[in-house]
Every structure is written in C-alpha cells, then in structure tokens.
C-alpha cells in the first residue's frame, strides 16, 4: 500500500472503531509495515476483523496471513506446473521394448 491507501484504510477503521488512531503520524509510522500489502488484501482483512472483534485491528491483523497466502499461491502454482509436466510425460511415454523385462529378470537371477 502507499501512504494514501493506508490513510484511506485508517479512515475506514476510525469509522468503525472511534478510539483508533488514524492520524497522519500513525499513517506515516505504520506505512513501512504495510507497504508490501496490497490495499485490497488489507481491506478484506479489515472487513473480516469487523465481523470477529470488538477491538480495533493491530498491524498483524491488517496484514492478515499474507505470508501464508503467498506460500499457498506459490505451492498452487508449483503443483500446477508439476501436474502439467506429469501430463506431458504421460503423453510422451512409450512401452518398454519387447523382451526387456525378461532380460532384466535373467540378469538379476544371474542367468546372463
């Protein structure tokens, strides 16, 4: 978020929680801790907070579980890539040449 977005979010929080500090100083102090969070994520986390708490949100609650969300998204993409690779491999797969299985068994049993 940028400074304007933090100020806008803090204004919304102040509407719901009258004792919340939405001053310019608070916005400037907290900006560094919120700058990597998209405004939409922070707004969504705040909306969820309203439904579950009578107290103003702290920075950690505004941030939400972004780290976990990012990790889930990374893992989802990685899984999609793996599934695509597996599908591609399946399409390229061919059966082993005739007699290979018997030849391997013979080698394992020392008959070759």
Structural notes for this entry:
This protein has 112 residues and is an all-alpha fold. The chain has two domains: 3-64; 66-112, no CATH class. 71% of the residues lie in helices and 0% in strands. It has six helices and no strands. α1 (3-16) packs across α2 (24-34) and α1 runs parallel beside α3. The longest helix is centred in the C-terminal third of the chain and has 27 residues, at 66-92. The radius of gyration is 28 Å and the shape is rod-shaped. The protein starts with a helix and ends with a helix.
How do you describe this structure in short?
The chain is mostly helical. It is built from 6 helices and no strands. Helix content is 71%, strand content 0%.
């Amino acid at each position: 978020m940028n400074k304007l977005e933090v100020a806008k979010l803090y204004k919304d929080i102040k509407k719901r929680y009258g004792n919340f500090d939405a001053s310019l100083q608070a916005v400037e102090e907290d900006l560094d801790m919120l700058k990597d969070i998209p405004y939409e994520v922070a707004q969504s986390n705040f909306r969820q907070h309203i439904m579950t708490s009578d107290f103003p949100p702290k920075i950690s609650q505004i941030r939400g579980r972004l780290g976990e969300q990012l990790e889930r998204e990374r893992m989802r993409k990685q899984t999609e890539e793996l599934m695509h690779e597996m599908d591609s491999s399946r399409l390229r797969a061919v059966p082993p040449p005739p007699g290979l299985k018997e030849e391997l068994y013979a080698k394992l049993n020392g008959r070759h």
